[in-house]
User: What shape does this take?
Amino acid sequence: MDDVKRIYLSWNDVVKLIGTVMPRLEVYEFDLVIAITRGGIVPGAIIAERLRIKQVLVASVDFYEDEEHDLDWPVFMQFPADSFLRGQQVLIVDDIWDRGKQIVNVTERVRQAGGQPYSVVLHYKSQRNEFPDKTPDFFAEETTDWIIYPWEVERGAVGTA
Assistant: This one.
């Protein structure tokens, strides 16, 4: 991680990033937003406000990647009931697509529930993506940098999505 450039974003930077992706989102009629905790909550709320989407739901997923656990399958700690998703155009929001594990699994779960998922992130790290056949449907910027968002408590703490 020492050779990776750290980028500290301001709130204005976040607003500008969302502004770059909004024209591509505005041509769709999404029924609801799913914000992936924790990084997707702030951009999810802003995007929902801009698109005038009132139904904002949360997905909380973990892979417990530590010395004792390394799960290939996610643990969904919070996820909307299938009845909320069935037949809906669902915009899934996260701050960054790093390895892609969280958003790919949330997307698949929405699809299994009968929803039509679309994913949007502020930053896409194509070089770290573990799913070569999958990419975000929408993203503001592609990067190789270590992005620290203004809502992150421990600025610069190691973590991946």
Remarks:
- Helices lie at 11-25, 41-51, 82-85, 101-112.
